[in-house]
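Revision sheet: structure tokens.
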Amino acid sequence: MQKAQFAHPFPLSDVSDPVVVEPPLPAKTTGPRRSRREPVDPTRQDYVSNAYCRLAAQLHQIQQSRRLTTVMVASALAGEGKSLTAANLARALSEAYGKRVVLIDADLRRPSQHALFGIRNTPGLIDCLAGNLPVRPARLSNTLHVVPAGSPEANPLERLSSSGLRELLSEQAERSDWVIIDVPPLAACPDAGILAHLVDGVVVVVRAGQTPLASVESAVTALGRERVVGVVLNRSTSRALQYGYPARKA
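Predicted:
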């Protein structure tokens, strides 16, 4: 089971409207086991579901005081849980808070949202940006829709830097309360850096005790500290929260 904890693992005093949520970590987990690659049910009363609902609530509070509709979920490195975090956040906003949410899989190199939700990957975002098809989000509920990535591309930079993506995000933002965007890791490719300029805010996912501190700081700098609205400290333990974030040497 994924242990979701939310905290700032490094000083972010100049980040605007930081999201800080620290749900308690129980000594023993009860109830049915959940696959790490399966989005949580936000209506369940367990500490993981509650954590994502609290993150959604914090974002909702920020939205009351500033423009915050399009939110990118990013990470410095691969394997930090950013795709599952994006899926869980989208479900929490739509199911627990009744908001109209569109989740867009903009990881055009290694897409995963279609697998997480059990939907087809094509047609998807690639087809829309190529001008082949209009965007047709998959309807998962009355409040949650998913735009899959489409067939992976080795070099999708031309698609991501096109005016079509800006228009697509603007259109979905007008129709929805929230647009959540899953992107590739910053260290792997420049895709997230391009998308960061098109969104209202960024949530950065960090794997506790694994991601080097320098990688996190580099990712935040690349994104623009003013765009970061929160940091998710993923798979944390109470010890990590008590003693601070233990940076691993690169």
